[in-house]
Amino acid sequence: MRWPAPDGTLLQVQTTGSGPPLLLLSGGPGCVNYLRPVADLLPHWTCYLPDPRGVGQSGGEPHRLLGELADLESLRRQLGLKRWTVLGHSWGADLGLAYALEYPGQLEQLVCFAGTGVQHDRDWSAAYQAGQHLETHFEVECSEAVWEALRGDWRRYIKQPELWARLARLGVPVTFLHMEKDIRPNWFVCQLAELLPYGRYLELPGASHYAWLTHGPELQHALLRALKP
Q1: Tens digit of pLDDT for each residue in 152-180?
Q2: Distances in Å between the alpha carbon of 175 and those of 69, 115, 165, 215?
Q3: Residues 106/79, Cβ–Cβ less than 8 Å
Q4: Taking the domain 2-227, which CATH number applies?
Q5: Where are the extended beta strands (E) located within the chain?
Q6: What is the C-alpha separation between 163 and 202, in angstroms, rounded?
Q7: Which residues contact 151 (CB under 8 A, 6 or more apart)?
């Protein structure tokens, strides 16, 4: 299915399953939506998997973070949904957190799956770089131009002076689901889980960043637990 963004650009979304609406945001930024294996673990949810603007089958060009969020809002309105649940993986988890900050009234809840948190920390980056050779190989189509534009704008967004105050007031329930063997350190998401009024932290033992490749049944159980209010 394609839907028109606010400026008329046609954007692509896959739909699977049947049940309450669930928006799945993949990482990158700038990657095609690779979360179909995750959607397949959640057949009792109606899962929406959009390709970002300028990526995959979606039209458009490199864009900024607030434009990406506006595109997601246009999808919600196109579908006629008052509210939905959002599940984001990796950078998609961080995008989901920004969406919750900008459009809190549109979310039932947010699940941040293997996210990194609102940070650009040297120690975190050093730990990530040191473990890269251990990560499971996962190929996905990605637009370098979209990646550069969104990564740069994300780093500007997280420097806003009032960011932490806004997070401390966020009324959306947020679950941070971390993978125990992820090379991305967990301390920032643990801090966020403590900071947010309705935050909680869960961990999937033995799993790494792309947990569906190795821990499908366990991930399914963890996601169902995370999605349970």
Answers
A1: 888 889 889 999 999 999 999 999 999 99
A2: 20, 11, 19, 19
A3: no
A4: 3.40.50.1820
A5: 2-4, 10-16, 21-25, 46-50, 84-89, 107-113, 174-179, 199-204
A6: 24
A7: 29
Nearest CA-CA partner of 68 in 86, 43, 83, 44: 86
- Residue 8's CB is within 10 A of a number of other CB atoms, namely 8
Q: Which amino acid makes up residue 192? A: L
pTM of the model: 0.89
Q: Which of 69-78, 140-149, 168-177 has the lowest mean pLDDT?
A: 140-149
Cβ atoms of 199 and 174 within 8 Å: the answer is yes
Say which residues have a Cβ less than 8 Å from residue 43's Cβ, sequence separation at least 6: 16, 17, 18, 19
Q: In the structure encoding, which two tokens stand for residue 144, read together?
A: 């370098």
Distances (CA, A) of 160 to 6, 87, 170: 25, 24, 16
Interatomic CA distance for residues 77 and 185, integer angstroms? 36
